[in-house]
């Protein structure tokens, strides 16, 4: 393992020095500033290509995070961003023209890439870093048929409810710590506030309906637990079996309850025509109080909104059945390689350390839509200047957290990005739970 823990401050302040500094001494010897990188050797003349769908402005912090590695080893990192990454990476792999490294946003896509026979198993050092800095659930997401191929990198938290701390304080409401308390809070707001407690929007062009899938995935985790969630995602239990049915009905207790929705927009049916980007904005006007949406939603509030623990807007963890239960739904990125060249292996090793995670978080701090977080246990949360990032990182680092990846992203496309979205939309506009789940089950590929 390289450049971990105690080496962080050294690397942050010295190894990524200014352009006029030469981190290497005469004769190719590294000075003390680059001691943490000595194990990688002299990689002068080596170029490592990275291919990803993370484009401007989010790409620049990646470029910056590799600077110490470049300065201290002599290697060059060529980061290539492409909005068509998910389609093109498969084309390139199948054509025998893959990059050295790819940042893969879904375990399902990773499995497709592995099936091309072009992906290399992760080096032993990377596996050791992942064992140290991540939980077993994260490592499993980068493992296909028993072989570990991809280390986790960035992450996002979906199990959040947005609210106004200022409104809560004014009304004496407290953040719930169990699902029962969330229901009681919703009833209290509905009875006493003069507005509907919840607001929501699921319109997203061709992807309309996806926010309902996140709701349902969160409830499957809470109703059935992580093992049943895994069985559901893999279709080891039917989509219309008992736990998924209970879970969608649990979502309906909120999203299809006319006493609860849709604050600021209308009745239940208005959810289907409200853009997901707009869904939680009525909180600012006091027209609703609660909105379930992922950590990235911070970017949708107007510039200048005070998003903080005591501000106009913040978020709390969507609770489990008990205060001790910590199921977390989220998404993330995985780093996999198509080359076993020593320079590529060295960069993979560095990338899987806590030092790289902290460099990346520091480089991302100035992004206008929040920074960047990871489930890496070595992340120094004091680096995170955005309160939502700090909240999300704390949720991921909770020793009781049980993380599960977005289910629809792991299901076959005919289900996860087709039938699930479409039938969830029909469900919002009046279709029954039984009919909805029966139709999604029927869409599951037979082989």
A few lines on this structure:
With 447 residues, this protein is of the alpha/beta class. It contains 17 helices and 12 strands.
Entry keywords:
447 residues, alpha/beta, seven-stranded mixed beta sheet, 17 helices
Protein model, in words:
The structure is a single chain. With 447 residues, the protein is an alpha/beta fold. Helices cover 39% and strands 13% of the residues. It has 17 helices and twelve strands. The strands form three sheets. Strands 1, 2, 3, 6, 10, 11 and 12 form a seven-stranded mixed β-sheet that branches. A three-stranded antiparallel β-sheet has the order 8-7-9. A two-stranded antiparallel sheet has the order 4-5. A hairpin with a 2-residue loop joins strand 4 (143-144) and strand 5 (147-148). Helix 16 (413-428) runs antiparallel to helix 17 (433-443). The longest helix is centred in the last third of the chain and has 16 residues, at 413-428. 50% of the residues are buried.
């Amino acid at each position: 393992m390289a450049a971990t823990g105690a080496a962080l401050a050294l690397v942050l302040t010295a190894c990524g020095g200014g352009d006029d500094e030469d981190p290497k001494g005469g004769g190719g010897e590294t000075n003390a500033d680059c001691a943490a990188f000595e194990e990688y050797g002299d990689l002068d003349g080596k170029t490592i290509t990275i291919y990803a769908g993370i484009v401007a402005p989010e790409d620049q912090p990646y470029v910056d995070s590799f600077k110490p590695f470049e300065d201290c080893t002599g290697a060059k990192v060529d980061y290539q961003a492409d909005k068509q990454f998910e389609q093109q990476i498969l084309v390139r792999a199948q054509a025998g023209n893959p990059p050295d490294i790819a940042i893969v946003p879904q375990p399902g896509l990773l499995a497709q890439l592995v099936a091309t026979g072009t992906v290399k198993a992760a080096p032993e050092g990377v596996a050791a870093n992942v064992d140290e800095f991540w939980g077993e659930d994260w490592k499993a997401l980068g493992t296909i048929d028993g072989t570990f191929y991809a280390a986790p990198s960035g992450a996002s938290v979906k199990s959040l409810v947005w609210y106004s701390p200022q409104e809560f304080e004014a009304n004496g409401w407290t953040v719930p710590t169990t699902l029962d308390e969330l229901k009681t809070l919703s009833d209290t707001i509905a009875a006493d506030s003069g507005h509907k407690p919840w607001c929501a929007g699921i319109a997203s062009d061709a992807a309309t309906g996806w926010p309902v899938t996140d709701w349902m995935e969160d409830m499957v985790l809470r109703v059935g637990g992580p093992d049943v969630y895994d069985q559901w995602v893999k279709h080891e239990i039917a989509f219309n079996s008992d736990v998924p049915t209970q879970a969608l009905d649990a979502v309906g207790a909120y999203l299809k309850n006319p006493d609860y929705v849709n604050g600021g927009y209308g009745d239940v049916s208005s959810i289907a025509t409200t853009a997901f980007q707009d869904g939680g904005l009525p909180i600012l006007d006091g027209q609703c109080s609660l909105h379930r949406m992922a950590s990235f939603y911070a970017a949708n509030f107007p510039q200048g909104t005070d998003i903080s623990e005591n501000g106009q807007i913040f978020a709390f963890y969507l609770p489990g059945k008990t205060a001790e239960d910590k199921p977390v739904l989220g998404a993330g990125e995985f780093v996999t390689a198509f080359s076993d060249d020593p320079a590529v292996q060295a960069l993979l090793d560095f990338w899987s350390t806590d030092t790289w995670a902290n460099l990346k978080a520091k480089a991302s701090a100035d992004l206008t839509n929040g920074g960047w977080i990871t489930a890496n246990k070595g992340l120094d949360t004091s680096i995170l200047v955005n309160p939502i990032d700090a909240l999300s990182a704390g949720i991921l680092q909770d020793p009781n957290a049980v993380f599960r990846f977005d289910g629809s992203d792991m299901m076959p496309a005919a289900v996860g990005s087709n039938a699930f979205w479409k039938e969830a939309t029909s469900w919002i506009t009046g279709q029954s739970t039984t009919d909805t789940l029966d139709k999604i089950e029927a869409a599951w590929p037979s082989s």
